[in-house]
Design the sequence.
């Protein structure tokens, strides 16, 4: 290249970084997994990008409701509309799930422990009427909604969650009670769950879905891609 | 600047300049507009990323949009500075920042302590800083674009892009903190990024080879041998 005295170090640094960045995009998810397994449960995770939820809210604030004042309504096309307290939910048979939480934009938190009640148990308690085909969910933030088909809502890994990592779910994480739809991207797991409404076959799309996201948000099989789940 | 007028005026015939132009207006505008955008990016990034801040601020959609728009604008000042003839000073400096000679390598190996090193306009730390920031802007643009327009990309790329974006941001913050600390530790250099010039004496002591280029060889040799 140029003579031995002058070397274009700047260009090499820039090109090298672009190369490393590209490799990082292609294989970084594995490296991140390794980091999380080794460092993710140490104090380092509070300053470094490890095992960390990005806290989303679509409104100007975080809606707060204590466990004592919390109520969950199940209504719509059901025989017996019900209203449940947090204590009612805790009295029902619990389900534990340990799954990766995957955002459609790419971030992921490994092995998150959830505890809650299967949604299907709530639906059965209320008695779903013939002709129903979908379920809508409403958040007490007043803006966010979500929806599932009735078949999706009946899955064992769709729960109304009240514990995250062994503790009551904090306000930032959508507590005291939120939806957790394990097989789908994070935006399906509506926070601050207030009402479940059984509807006809084609429920209205949710908050992000009217903004372009897929309604059927299977991890790895939606939003432009058809990959194997990681 | 502390030289009294009489002292400065004494060797009248070949009086060296008191001030040397270091950065022209285009370069300073580029530096500060980029710095401003980076500041907006860091603040919005912190709000998007740290749970307590997200809780405090909310309005995720708005914050996200500000972050994305500032990020897309980030290369604009550089491109604007380079499209016209007004970018000649910048181009010359980019060339100087790109090339390393034997003095630069010795400076780096001795951590700046080797007294025989005679530096040009930029020291190797500044050259590395400029190259790193340039590369990082490219990396952040690419990974950020994958995170924003994620539809065509496989899930593992999206996670990889998030990984790259997060860790490059950590490195960038460290480098920027270092850059600001160095600047605050050298007021003459910092002032030159605001008003454009450095005291000639600063250049003679810290950047002897650049000083010689600026004032002409004979002059520099005389003042150098003192």
Sequence:
């Amino acid at each position: 290249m140029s003579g031995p005295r002058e070397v274009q170090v700047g260009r090499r640094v820039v090109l090298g970084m672009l190369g490393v960045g590209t490799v990082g995009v292609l294989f970084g998810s594995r490296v991140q997994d390794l980091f999380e397994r080794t460092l993710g449960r140490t104090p380092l995770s509070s300053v470094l990008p490890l095992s960390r939820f990005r806290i989303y809210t679509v409104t100007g604030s975080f809606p707060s409701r204590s466990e004592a004042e919390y109520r969950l309504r199940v209504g719509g096309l059901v025989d017996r509309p019900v209203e449940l307290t947090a204590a009612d939910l805790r009295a029902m048979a619990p389900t534990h799930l340990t799954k990766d939480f995957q955002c459609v934009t790419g971030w992921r938190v490994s092995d998150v422990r959830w505890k809650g009640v299967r949604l299907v148990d709530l639906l059965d308690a209320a008695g779903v009427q013939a002709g129903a085909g979908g379920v809508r969910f409403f958040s007490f933030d007043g803006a966010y909604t979500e929806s599932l088909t009735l078949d999706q809502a009946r899955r064992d890994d769709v729960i109304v969650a009240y514990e995250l990592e062994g503790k009551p779910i904090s306000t930032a994480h959508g507590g005291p009670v939120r939806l957790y739809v394990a097989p789908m991207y994070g935006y399906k797991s509506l926070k601050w769950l207030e009402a479940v409404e059984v509807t006809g076959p084609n429920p209205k799309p949710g908050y992000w879905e009217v903004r372009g996201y897929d309604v059927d948000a299977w991890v790895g099989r939606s939003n432009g891609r058809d990959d194997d789940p990681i | 600047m502390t030289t009294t007028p009489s002292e400065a005026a004494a060797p009248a015939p070949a009086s060296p300049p008191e001030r040397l132009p270091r950065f022209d207006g285009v370069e300073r505008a580029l530096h500060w507009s980029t710095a401003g955008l980076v500041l907006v990016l860091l603040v919005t990034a912190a709000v998007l990323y740290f749970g307590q801040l997200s809780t405090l601020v909310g309005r995720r959609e708005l914050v996200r949009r500000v972050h994305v728009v500032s990020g897309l604008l980030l290369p604009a000042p550089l491109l604007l500075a380079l499209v016209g003839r007004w970018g000649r000073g910048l181009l010359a400096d980019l060339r100087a920042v790109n090339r390393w000679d034997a003095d630069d390598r010795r400076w780096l190996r001795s951590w700046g302590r080797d007294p025989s090193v005679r530096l040009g306009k930029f020291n190797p730390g500044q050259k590395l800083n400029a190259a790193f920031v340039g590369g990082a802007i490219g990396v952040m643009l690419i990974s950020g674009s994958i995170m924003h327009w994620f539809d065509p990309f496989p899930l593992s790329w999206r996670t990889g892009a998030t990984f790259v974006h997060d860790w490059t941001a950590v490195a960038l913050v460290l480098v920027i903190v270092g850059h600001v600390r160095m600047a605050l530790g050298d007021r003459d250099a910092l002032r030159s990024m605001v008003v454009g010039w450095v005291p000639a004496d600063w250049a003679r002591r810290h950047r002897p080879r650049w000083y010689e280029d600026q004032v002409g060889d004979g002059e520099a040799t005389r003042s150098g041998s003192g």
User: Anything to note?
Assistant: Chain A touches chain B through 53 residues (CB under 8 Å). The radius of gyration of chain A is 22 Å. The CA atoms of residues 121 and 132 of chain A lie 16 Å apart.
